[in-house]
């Protein structure tokens, strides 16, 4: 089953950084196991462009549409047997300590 994992910063990170896993080791392990299909870090929210169409007109807004202190800073697409495996993979990610991760399964359309 495929999952999109949003990697987000957080206002309350782990204070003991000695517990934080190495991101390069996490990527290498999950790439080698075939669980991580792709992923990347995103540019700052100030580089975002929000697009909406209203009344047939395309409306653009520079920067993030929502005001928030917690933003999406990256993503990974995971291929896991089930939600339990996806949770285990996410829990081993450094941002589980420094930020937060949101898992969303792909929907069947």
TrEMBL record:
InterPro entries reported in the protein's UniProt record: Dimeric_a/b-barrel, YCII
Pfam name, any one: YCII
Domain of life: Bacteria
YCII-related domain residues: 1-106
PANTHER family registered for this protein in UniProt: BLL7171 PROTEIN (PTHR35174:SF3), BLL7171 PROTEIN-RELATED (PTHR35174)
UniProt record similarity statement: Belongs to the YciI family.
Official protein name in the record: Transcription initiation protein
Source species of the chain: Paractinoplanes rishiriensis
Phylogenetic classification of the source organism: Bacteria, Bacillati, Actinomycetota, Actinomycetes, Micromonosporales
């Amino acid at each position: 089953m495929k999952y999109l994992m949003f990697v987000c910063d957080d206002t309350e990170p782990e204070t003991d950084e000695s517990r934080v896993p190495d991101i390069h080791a996490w990527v290498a392990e999950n790439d080698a196991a075939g669980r991580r299909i792709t992923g990347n870090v995103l540019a700052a929210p100030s580089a975002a462009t929000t697009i909406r169409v209203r009344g047939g007109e395309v409306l653009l807004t520079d920067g993030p549409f929502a005001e928030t202190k917690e933003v999406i800073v990256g993503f990974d697409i995971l291929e896991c047997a089930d939600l339990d495996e996806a949770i285990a993979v996410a829990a081993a990610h450094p941002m589980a300590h420094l930020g937060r991760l949101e898992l969303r399964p792909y929907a069947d359309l």
